[in-house]
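Title: [Solved] Transcriptional regulatory protein 3D structure

Original question kept below for reference.
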Amino acid sequence: MIRVVIVEDDPMVAEFNRRYLELVEGFELIAVAYSADKALEILNKQEVDLVLLDIFMPGMNGLELLSRIRTSGKGVDVIIVSAACDSNSIKTALRFGATDYIIKPFEFERLEAALSAYRDLVKLMQEPNRINQLELDNCILYKEQPAAAKLPKGIDRNTLTKTWEKINGLKRTAFSTEEMASYVGISRVSMRKYLDFLKNIGVLDLEITYGTIGRPVYRYRCTSLTNNLMQRYLG
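Solution (posted by the thread starter after getting help):
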């Protein structure tokens, strides 16, 4: 679970943020702080992953708190949730490493999108193997894109979904075009199109080995079992 602290001086807004947070899977509220000083006290005592941070607060404001968090070296991420919509506040927050900036008033869907994107990025960073560019772009750049990205001609979404499910079921075991075609129930020629597509977007590696008579054997292996990139294509 991603451990969250809400920093908001307005109790009613803090309560709305708490209720919204409860609706998004994967997050656990650690505390609500009604001032920056209280937030620092919590951060010094507890393990926190993410702070939902207001800017306009009495005493130390949110940007000052964000600066203090960064200079302390704490590995805490911050999403700004504030009525501050001037370019200086936004630039300062991003310069200090805020992962997202939500302007009040906002709809639940905007906060949900920010939290979901952050959760996907956390999962991606936990991958022990290499992260490819498309997976990283999907988390950082494509937050607002529709889930169902356009597929190349000749690639059917239902067949792609079935193929991806079979690949996931094999974990990281290598497989041939013929084997996957048999699993899914389509021809080898058709399957080659799907495997080439998955290779081109970076979720499959192609391995070439040679048998005793020197004939090359082509086998594919999944580069990552996370579904972040594939969600764009599966819809």
